[in-house]
Design goal:
By secondary structure, the protein is an alpha/beta fold. It has 4 domains: about 5-60, N-terminal domain of TfIIb (Single Sheet), CATH 2.20.25.90; about 70-130 and about 350-445 and about 460-565, Rossmann fold (3-Layer(aba) Sandwich); about 145-335 and about 590-605, Dimethylsulfoxide Reductase, domain 2 (3-Layer(aba) Sandwich), CATH 3.40.228.10; about 615-740, Barwin-like endoglucanases (Beta Barrel). The N and C termini lie far apart (about 60 Å). The model has no long low-confidence stretch (mean pLDDT about 95). The chain binds ligand MGD (2 copies), iron/sulfur cluster and molybdenum atom.
Length: about 750
C-alpha cells in the first residue's frame, strides 16, 4: 500500500538566486500544492510563478528517469551499469592518447543551485586533471570575480547592496522585477524596492530599456548598450573634480585613491555624453546625488557584466562605492558572512596562469572562456578537445555563436551529460545520466548565502526518494570522477565519498586556528557518523563555520541537526561591516587602482571615438523563464508569444516594420527570423531579444517547448567578442541589422 498521508513540508526554492521558502503539501509521491512559506525567516511568504512549478518539473514526462545511450541517431534507455561501462570504455582511452586536456568539462548555471554540483564537480574536475574547464560564469559574472580579486584580494569577496537600509540605490543593467535579483540574494526584490521608496529613498535605474524595474524606479536613465564603464568613469570623474571623494571609515585602508583620480580624469561627462547617449548635466547630477545621499550603494549586473568593458564596469561600480564612503557600511554595499564560509587565502590575486591553446585567452579562476570552446574542439593539433562532459548546462542555447558550437559538439568523439532533459545540448551526448529532480535531493544554498543581503541559513531535506533507485547526482559525479581517475566504473561510491571528504576536512582543519572540539579528521568522521554525501560536508562546514558549534566549543552554534529542526530557516541577522579583517589583498588595503585594470583604460577611451552603430542588440529576462530550461512547463509558457524582438517606433518606421511583423535580424555571427513588437520601451537604435529560446532542433525531447520554440538569441552573439580581462562573452550591445521579411 502506498503511503497516502498528507504532509506539509518546507524547502528553499533552488530555481533562482532569491532563495524563497516554499510550503509544500504532498500526498504519497504527489505534490498537492506549493505556496510561499509565510514563516520563512527571509522570504516571509514571497514566491514567484516559477516556485510552484517544482511540481511540474518533478512530474514532467520528458524529464529523464533512466540513463540514455545514443548510437547514431537512435536513443535507447540503458541501465546505470551499461551507461557507466560505456563511459569507462571511451573516456580513459582518449585521456591516455592525448592527455587530460583532451577531455573538457562544461558546468552550467544550475550547479550553483545544487549541493551536488557545488561540492562534487570539484572532485570530477580534479580527477580529470584537465585545464579544459568551461562554465556559465564566462557568460555571466566573471568580470565581478576579476574586479573583486584585484580590489579585495579574493574573487568571491563580492559586495551586495544593503537594499533594506539604503537611501539611494544606483542600479545598472539589472532587472530584479523579472530576474528576482542576482549577485544580491533577496527574496522579494519588488517588495524591498517598494519599501525603499516608501521610506523616502530613491533608486535610479540605468538601462537601455524601460524594464519593469525601470518603471518602478524614482528615475530611469537610458544608456547606449555597452557603455556603462564610460558612464561610471564619468561619475567618478565628477566626484574627483567636485572634491566629493571621501572613503569615510575605510580611508585608512584604501590604496590608489590618487591613481584612480588620474585614470578617470580623461572621462569628463562632456566627453562620454555622445557615446553613452546621456547628457553631461544628467551625469553630473547623478554623481552629486550619489555623493549627497546619507547611505547609498551602486550595483551593476548582467547589463554591465556581459559587455566588452565588463571588468572595468564592475571595478568602477565598487570604486564608486569606496570613494563615496559606502563600501562595507550599513546601508551601503556590504559583504555577507555565509554560515559555511571557509578561510580565504591572502595574497596577490592574478589570472593567466595558463592560456587557451587556440585563442591564447588567459585562464581566470581555473577556467577558460566558454566562447572559446568551439575553436578548441574544431582546431586540429596537440591538445585538441575530443570529448566533453556537461553537467547542468545548455551551452548550445546559452553561449555565443551557438550554431558553431552546435556543430562542434556534433563532431566530438565522445560526450557525456548529466542533466534533467534531452535538450539542445545533451542531444549530442553519447550518454545522458539523469540528474536528480530538485524535490528529490537535499538543498542548502552554499553560493547564495555568500551573496545575500541578510545572513540566513536554511536546509531542506529531500521530499521524495529517488525514482527507480537512481543514484543521487553527487554519486553520479563521483562515479564519473572515479572513471576519470582510472579507477574504473565499479569503485564503491562510499569509498570515493570518504576520500573526497577526508581530503577536504584535512585541508580545512589545518588552515584554521580556531578552537574546535575535534583535532583530527578521524574525530570529525566519528562526530559525523551517520552522515554522508553533501550532508556530511554541510554539517562539517556549518560546525566549523563562523556561526558553528565548533564541535562543542560554541554550544548552541549551528549544526545541520539544528537546521533540520528549524524548517523555516535560521536568521543570522543583518550584514555587518567586515573590513579590514576580511580583506585579502597582499597589502591588506582595498586596491582602488589595480594595474591590470588601469591598463585596460586605453581601450575604453578608444571607444569614445567609435563611429555610431545603427542598431545594437540587447537581451532581457522574463519572470516566467529561467535561462533555457523551463520552457517545457506549460503553465509558464502558455499565453502570448514572448520571444519577440522589441523595436523602437522610430527604427520600425525607418526599416518598414509593423507591430507583429516578422523581421530578419543578422549579426557577424548569424541570423534569426522573429516576430517584432514595436515599443518605445527600448531606446532608439536598440533592439531586444530574450535568450534561452530556440527549441526547434532535431533530437530535442521537450514536447511542450517544441510547440513554442522561439528563436535562439545566441545565434547572433559573436564568440570573437569578449571582455579581455575576464574572458566574459559580449551578450549585450551586439551590432545587428534588421529587415522586414
Ligand atoms: N544572449 C544571452 N545569453 C545568455 C545570457 C543572456 O543574458 N543573454 N545569460 C547567461 C547566463 S547569466 C547564464 S547563467 C547562462 C546559463 O547557461 P547554462 O547554464 O549553460 O544554461 P541553462 O539554460 O541554465 O541550462 C541549464 C541546464 O541544466 C539542466 N538542469 C537543470 N537543473 C539541473 C540539475 O539540478 N542538475 C543537472 N545536472 N541539470 C540540471 C537543464 O535541463 C539545462 O540543460 O546563460 C547565459 N546566456
Ligand atoms: N525569470 C528569470 N529569472 C532569472 C533568470 C532568468 O532567465 N529568468 N536567470 C537567472 C540568472 S542565471 C541570472 S545571471 C540573473 C540575472 O539577473 P539580472 O542581472 O537582473 O538580469 P536581467 O533581467 O537580464 O537584467 C539585465 C538588464 O540589463 C539591461 N541591459 C542590457 N544591456 C545593457 C547595457 O549595456 N547597460 C545597461 N545599463 N543595461 C543593459 C537589460 O535591458 C536588462 O533590463 O537572473 C536570474 N534570474
Ligand atoms: S523568485 Fe526564484 S527562488 Fe523565489 S520562487 Fe521564484 S524562482 Fe523560486
Ligand atoms: Mo546567470
Amino acid at each position: 500500500m502506498p503511503d497516502e498521508t498528507t504532509l506539509t513540508t518546507y524547502r528553499t526554492c533552488p530555481l533562482c538566486e532569491a532563495t524563497c521558502g516554499l510550503e509544500i503539501t504532498s500526498r504519497g509521491e504527489q505534490v498537492v500544492r506549493i505556496r510561499g512559506d509565510r514563516e520563512d525567516v527571509f522570504s516571509r511568504g514571497f514566491i514567484c510563478p516559477k516556485g510552484s512549478t517544482l511540481k511540474h518539473i518533478d512530474e514532467d514526462p520528458d524529464r529523464l528517469r533512466r540513463p540514455r545511450i545514443r548510437r547514431g541517431d537512435t536513443w535507447s534507455d540503458a541501465s546505470w551499469d551499461e551507461a557507466f561501462a560505456l563511459v569507462a570504455e571511451r573516456l580513459p582511452g582518449i585521456i591516455a592518447e592525448d592527455g587530460p586536456g583532451a577531455v573538457a568539462l562544461y558546468l552550467g548555471n544550475p550547479n550553483v543551485h545544487n549541493m551536488a554540483g557545488l561540492l562534487y564537480n570539484r572532485a570530477l574536475a580534479k580527477a580529470l586533471r584537465t585545464r579544459s574547464v568551461f562554465t556559465a560564469a564566462t557568460v555571466d559574472q566573471m568580470p565581478k570575480h576579476v574586479s573583486s580579486g584585484h580590489m579585495f584580494g579574493h574573487p568571491d569577496l563580492i559586495p551586495v547592496p544593503d537594499v533594506d537600509r539604503v537611501d539611494h540605490l544606483l542600479m545598472l543593467g539589472a532587472d530584479p522585477y523579472e530576474s528576482n535579483g542576482s549577485l544580491a540574494t533577496a527574496p522579494d526584490w519588488p517588495g524591498r524596492l517598494a519599501r525603499l521608496k516608501a521610506r523616502g529613498g530613491t533608486f535610479v535605474v540605468v538601462d537601455p530599456r524601460r524594464s519593469r524595474t525601470a518603471r518602478e524606479a524614482t528615475e530611469h536613465v537610458m544608456i547606449r548598450p555597452g557603455t556603462d564603464a564610460l558612464l561610471l568613469a564619468a561619475l567618478c570623474n565628477v566626484l574627483y573634480a567636485d572634491d566629493l571623494v571621501d572613503p569615510g571609515g575605510l580611508a585608512g585602508h584604501v590604496a590608489g585613491l590618487a591613481e584612480l583620480g588620474e585614470a578617470v580624469a580623461r572621462f569628463a561627462p562632456e566627453r562620454v555624453a555622445l557615446a553613452t547617449a546621456i547628457d553631461a548635466g544628467t551625469i553630473r547630477r547623478m554623481a552629486r546625488e550619489l555623493a549627497a545621499a546619507d547611505r547609498a550603494a551602486v550595483y551593476g549586473r548582467i547589463g554591465t557584466h556581459t559587455v566588452e568593458f565588463g571588468t572595468l564596469a564592475s571595478w568602477l561600480v565598487d570604486a564608486l562605492n569606496v570613494v563615496t564612503g559606502n563600501l562595507d557600511r550599513e546601508g551601503g554595499a556590504m559583504f555577507a558572512t555565509a554560515a559555511t564560509e571557509g578561510p580565504r587565502r591572502r595574497g596577490a590575486w592574478s589570472t593567466g596562469r595558463w592560456r587557451s591553446r587556440v585563442g591564447g585567452h588567459p585562464e581566470v579562476r581555473g577556467e577558460l572562456p566558454v566562447s572559446a570552446l568551439a575553436e578548441e574542439i574544431e582546431t586540429p593539433g596537440d591538445g585538441r578537445i575530443r570529448a566533453l562532459i556537461t553537467v547542468a548546462g545548455n551551452p548550445v542555447l546559452s553561449t555565443p555563436n551557438s550554431a558553431r558550437l552546435d556543430a562542434a559538439l556534433a563532431s566530438l568523439e565522445f560526450m557525456v551529460s548529466v542533466d534533467l532533459y534531452q535538450n539542445e545540448t545533451t542531444r549530442h551526448a553519447d550518454v545522458i545520466l539523469p540528474a536528480t529532480s530538485p524535490l528529490r535531493r537535499g538543498h542548502y544554498d552554499f553560493a547564495f548565502t555568500a551573496l545575500s543581503v541578510r545572513n540566513v541559513a536554511n536546509y531542506s531535506p529531500a521530499l521524495f526518494a529517488a525514482e527507480n533507485g537512481n543514484p543521487a547526482e553527487w554519486e553520479i559525479l563521483l562515479r564519473l570522477a572515479a572513471i576519470a581517475a582510472g579507477q574504473g566504473p565499479d569503485l564503491p561510491v562510499e569509498v570515493m565519498d570518504e576520500f573526497v571528504f577526508r581530503t577536504y576536512a584535512e585541508a580545512r582543519l589545518s588552515s584554521t586556528d580556531e578552537e574546535l572540539g575535534v583535532s583530527s579528521v578521524d574525530e570529525v568522521m566519528k562526530a559525523l557518523e551517520g552522515r554522508g554525501g553533501p550532508e556530511r560536508f554541510l554539517d562539517f562546514m556549518l560546525r566549523v563555520g563562523p556561526y558553528g558549534d565548533g564541535f562543542g566549543t560554541a554550544p548552541g552554534g549551528l549544526t545541520l541537526a539544528r537546521l533540520e529542526a528549524e524548517p523555516h530557516g535560521v536568521d543570522l541577522g543583518p550584514l555587518e561591516p567586515r573590513f579590514p579583517e576580511a580583506l585579502r589583498t597582499a597589502g591588506g588595503t582595498i586596491e582602488l587602482a589595480p594595474e591590470a585594470l588601469l591598463a585596460d583604460m586605453a581601450r575604453l577611451e578608444a571607444a569614445l571615438d567609435r563611429g555610431d552603430v545603427e542598431l545594437l542588440l540587447i537581451g532581457r529576462r522574463q519572470l516566467r523563464s529561467n535561462n533555457s530550461w523551463m520552457h517545457n512547463v506549460e503553465v509558464l509558457v502558455k499565453g502570448k508569444e514572448r520571444c519577440t524582438l522589441l523595436v523602437h517606433p522610430r527604427d520600425a518606421r525607418v526599416i518598414g516594420l509593423a507591430d507583429g511583423a516578422s523581421a530578419r535580424v543578422a549579426s557577424a555571427a548569424g541570423e534569426v527570423e522573429v516576430a517584432v513588437e514595436v515599443t518605445d520601451d527600448v531606446m532608439p537604435g536598440v533592439v531586444s531579444l530574450p535568450h534561452g529560446w530556440g527549441h526547434d532542433l532535431d533530437g530535442v525531447s521537450l514536447s511542450v517547448a517544441a510547440a513554442r520554440p522561439g528563436v535562439n538569441a545566441n545565434r547572433l552573439s559573436d564568440e570573437t567578442r569578449m571582455d579581455p580581462l575576464s574572458g566574459n562573452a559580449v551578450l549585450n550591445g551586439i551590432p545587428v541589422t534588421v529587415e522586414a521579411v
